[in-house]
Amino acid sequence: MKKRSCLGLIGRTALFYLACVTACLPVEAQREVRFRLLYDTVVVVSIEINDQGPFEFILDTGTDTTILDVGLASRLSLVPIDVMTLTTVSGKRTLVRSSVRKLALGAVAVPDLEVLLQDMAELRRLNAHICGIVGQNFLSHFNYALDYGRRSVRIELGSELRESLSGERVQIEMSEGKMLVPAELHSFGRTKVRLLLDSGANALILFRKVVQVRPAALGASLFGADSHDNASGIRMGQVDALTVGSRQFRDLTVAFAPAAAGNTLRLEDGLLPTALFRVLYINNRERFVMLNPTILAAHSRPVQPARRKSS
Q1: What Å distances lie between residue 66 and 21, 78, 98, 113, 132, CA to CA?
Q2: Residue 6: is its pLDDT beyond 50?
Q3: Structural domains counted in the chain
Q4: Contact 143, 268 (CB under 8 A)
Q5: What confidence tens digit (pLDDT) does each residue in 83-98 have?
Q6: In a domain, 54, yes or no
Q7: Positive or negative torsion for Cα 214, 218, 220, 221
Q8: Are 35 and 204 in contact (CB under 8 A)?
Q9: 136: enclosing H helix or E strand
């Protein structure tokens, strides 16, 4: 039986490329996949597997391997390969490993993708349509913009997004496939941390007590793609501020994951919910992220002159 952490080996294949029709194509015209939100933060997209679907999956940048519900795996006649141990926020789980011939999201597809099979009854109780979680072993193959305002994933097929967006670049540290960004916590002092970009969580989560916190505000709660079923072991608090690059967030709720779950052995200090930002451009090729980038004027939609009415 294989053992590994929540993020393991991620294969590298060629990035998919499609030339723009024109040099000044606006960002809005790029390949775009709409999503819906659960609990205002959790991204749900439609994907196709082995040319079947669409199926609704949670898009989770904090999860290593794509996970399928065992019922969907049965419908797709997936063949088990072996079993492995997966470490999540809520503890360790032993899951069956398999693979799919092709997984596609909008304009991009990854062939021969490793997947894990899990009974997702807990997630289905929250939303009956969820069939799985699409993770980093798929998402790391391309660059994309996660836009919460438009509720869309804009997929970069060449370098069109990179050339049309401007903003501060925060370098991503890739470690065992994890997307880690440097940050600073302010609460009874300042503490530097490395946080995992996570689109599957709705709160800042820490795996070890690196900073003192104030008591949490009444009504604070936690939901995550892999933590919802063990919320009883999570303690809540608040920090004065969190700084990522030049962005600062004040009076944030923070959750401390149970030490018994093995979280103190993780490389990262905690999880950074991507929903804190309006837009993220994630460049896997050059390993950086832009937080709330702006569209360059040269790539904005040109304003057409008003037509004069003939007399």
Answers
A1: 33, 14, 10, 8, 8
A2: no
A3: 2
A4: no
A5: 887 666 556 778 899 9
A6: yes
A7: positive
A8: no
A9: helix 136-139
